[in-house]
Amino acid sequence: TIESLLPLGVAWRTGANEATSFVTTANLSVDGKDVPAGSYTIFTIPKQDSWTLIVNKHTGEWGIPYHYQSEEAAKVPMQVSKTSGPVENFTIAFDQSGDACTLRLSWENTQASVKLTEKK
């Protein structure tokens, strides 16, 4: 199960090996938190029934252990749901809808997502 593969309740690099980079050329609102255009690293805190997304200013990080609380640009809750079927490989996707998009993380039978909108 996903719970046996991830460190529940601990910041995870949201991928394997190096932490996942997140680059935006637009100023964003991530669940109401301002994230200016720039380069970031994303981490998540997975729990059995909830996940938290961390957008961090620290870049070039291998990913663990997590020491960068003072550099967090945003720390927001994610919506968690079951996938329609098993997802064998961890997947990061963006689904656009109008002037917003949803960042979606999927793996095994779990999907965690959060809405991103451009700040104008």
Defining traits:
globular; seven-stranded antiparallel beta sheet
What is the topology?
Layout: H1 2-5, E1 20-24, E2 28-30, E3 33-35, E4 38-46, E5 51-56, E6 72-97, E7 100-118
Antiparallel strand pairs: 1-4, 2-3, 2-7, 4-5, 5-6, 6-7
Q: Which of globular, elongated, flat, extended, rod-shaped describes the shape?
A: globular
Q: In what order do the strands lie side by side in the largest sheet?
A: 1-4-5-6-7-2-3
Strand content: over 45%
Q: Which bin fits the share of residues in helices?
A: under 10%
Mean pLDDT: 91
Major β-sheet annotation = 7 strands, antiparallel
User: Using DSSP, what is the number of strands?
Assistant: 7
Distance between the termini: 41 Å
Computed CA radius of gyration, to the nearest angstrom? 14 Å
What's the total helix number?
1
N-to-C order of helices and strands: HEEEEEEE
In short:
By secondary structure, this protein is mainly beta. Helix content is 3%, strand content 59%.
Question: What do you see in this structure?
Answer:
This protein has 120 residues and is mainly beta. Helices cover 3% and strands 59% of the residues. It has one helix and seven strands, in the order αβββββββ. It has one helix at residues 2-5; strands at residues 20-24, 28-30, 33-35, 38-46, 51-56, 72-97, 100-118. A seven-stranded antiparallel β-sheet has the order 1-4-5-6-7-2-3, with no helix packed on it. It is globular and about 40 Å long.
